[in-house]
Specification:
By secondary structure, this protein is of the alpha+beta class. It is built from six helices and five strands, in the order ααβααββαββα. Helix content is 34%, strand content 15%.
């Protein structure tokens, strides 16, 4: 199903809205069942689904009669949704990117005393966090500037995805929730050195 209405496309730029919508993708479901699964207040979920219904993203697929008010079962109007980039009013990851940056800055302020910078044996600039005494684990905010062939870039992308998939399969209901992001893109206007090891036979 293709979504061209910017109001409906906005749903897919927000992770919370996407997650709620796609709970109804495979079969008709009652709000009470979804609320319990998402550990969400039923009235709050009803607000979200009412909005999704008005946008044409979910429909009432069935209504079960019972004493008093019947139970409506909702289902997505499409098996999947394609949102053209031109229809989306914002990048699909903007909300999560903003949340992650704010969370890193919050945790860094609470746990990091500062940074120390130095040259490693290969002559590369290295930076390391200096944690405060008795601080919780500091956030990870690691960057690299790498020179990669197309094959190496695809390999790195695949291996990063495999690591995330492996840890995603280790779900622990007792664990704390972390927002994790990996990303890579070509740096078209790069000037200066990269972080790759200096080749022993490189000429000055």
């Amino acid at each position: 199903m293709t979504i061209r209405d910017p109001r409906a496309a906005m749903v897919f730029t927000q992770s919370h809205w996407r997650r709620i919508l796609l709970q109804f993708a495979r079969r008709p479901r009652a709000l009470g069942d979804v609320a319990r699964e998402l550990e969400m207040d039923l009235k709050q979920l009803h607000h979200y689904v009412t909005r999704l219904h008005r946008l044409g993203l979910v429909k009432v697929a069935e209504e079960r009669k019972r004493a008093g008010r019947g139970i409506k079962l909702y289902q997505c109007t499409g098996e999947s949704y394609f949102i053209p980039s031109m229809a989306a009013p914002a990048p699909f990851s903007r909300g999560l990117a903003k949340e992650l940056r704010n969370a890193i800055e919050r945790d860094a302020a609470a746990s990091i005393e500062g940074m120390v910078f130095s040259l490693d044996p290969q002559g590369r600039v290295c930076g390391a966090h200096v944690e405060k005494a008795n601080a919780r684990t500091s956030p990870m905010d690691s960057w690299r500037i790498l020179a990669l062939s197309p094959v190496q870039a695809r390999q790195l992308k695949q291996e990063l995805a495999e690591v995330l998939d492996r840890f995603q399969g280790m779900a622990d209901a007792r664990g704390e929730v972390y927002l994790v992001h990996t990303g890579m893109a070509r740096r078209l206007d790069h000037v200066g050195a990269t972080d790759n090891p200096v080749q022993a036979d490189a000429k000055p």
